[in-house]
Specification:
The protein is mostly helical. Strands 1-2-3 form a three-stranded antiparallel beta sheet, with no helix packed on it. A two-stranded antiparallel sheet has the order 4-5. It is globular and about 55 Å long.
Length: 292
């Protein structure tokens, strides 16, 4: 019979790594809750289930760990938590089943489409200035939808040769460089400066909602709002409606990755720029490129 003293404790390094992962998972969840204006604690089963279903870019193991992190935070604060709730179990099952299906080729914004869409943002309006900056940042930074809407003004700094974004969503910040362009219409630094002239904010969400009266609000855009912006700008750029309808907030990231692969960018450099730890994550984009 095995006694308590015979049970080996996990190595200290593993325990630290696990705590670090849980902390990053909790930050990710609270950021998502902030964007969607819902409470992270106590969180309803429906809110957590909706969050889990938004994690379409992550493996089932990561999704289960994030659910565990949410549960641990609730129990630590003495709040009720039922991981067997049917709503939660259904969400985990849905995401596991999704992961088992072959990945559909991602819809992409090509460099030519990007230029045409940016050219439709030149009316000088706050909406046009915001959308131009959003398109260029999202593409050049290969930003995930959550990274794009989570960007804060203070996360952006303009240097001599690049715009640097501090991506903070996974806990620790990771810097991503966007090269400057001699073409002012396509230059991230010029787009950021122009947007800042009308946004008048030094802190808080970078990309904000704009009212029908062209008044810049205080709340960050949602991923769904980014999808609508992309589809609207694509139609304005005379992209065929059937293609425009497939574009989502992820299409900017997909477009950058496919373009980089086409240009022969090294896998290690591409993974570093796109924040992919596993090169296998590039396979759906490689398959898409192979069918061009």
């Amino acid at each position: 019979m095995t006694g308590a003293s015979d049970v080996a404790a996990p190595p200290a390094r593993e325990a630290v790594a696990t705590l670090r992962a849980y902390r990053a998972d909790w930050v990710h969840f609270t950021n998502w809750c902030g964007v969607h204006a819902v409470s992270p604690i106590p969180a309803t089963a429906q809110v957590v289930a909706t969050y889990l279903r938004s994690l379409t870019e992550f493996a089932p193991a990561t999704i289960r760990r994030r659910l565990a992190a949410i549960g641990k935070m609730h129990r630590f604060n003495g709040m009720a938590w039922n991981v067997t709730d049917p709503v939660l179990r259904a969400a985990v099952a849905d995401m596991t089943e999704r992961a088992s299906r072959p990945a559909a080729p991602p819809a992409v914004v090509t460099p030519d489409m990007l230029r045409a869409m940016v050219e439709c943002c030149t009316d000088g309006s706050p909406r046009g200035l915001r959308d131009r900056c959003l398109l260029l940042f999202g593409f050049a930074g290969a930003l995930r939808r959550s990274e794009l809407v989570g960007l804060q003004v203070e996360d952006v700094r303009v240097e001599r040769t690049q715009v640097v974004l501090d991506i903070r969503e996974e806990g620790a910040a990771q810097s991503v460089g966007l090269p400057l362009s001699s073409d002012s219409a396509m230059c991230p630094a010029a787009a950021f400066a122009a947007w800042q002239q009308v946004a008048h904010r030094q802190t808080g969400p970078l990309f904000r909602a704009i009212s029908k009266g062209e008044r810049v609000g205080g709340r960050a855009l949602t991923p769904y709002a980014v999808t609508r912006i992309l589809q609207r700008r694509a139609l304005m750029a005379e992209v065929p409606p059937d293609i425009a309808a497939t574009l989502s907030a992820h299409a900017l990231r997909s477009g950058y990755i496919v373009a980089a692969l086409r240009q022969g960018m090294e896998t290690e450099a591409l993974c570093q720029h796109t924040r992919y730890r596993d090169p296998r994550a590039l396979r759906p984009y490689e398959r898409l490129l192979a069918h061009d």
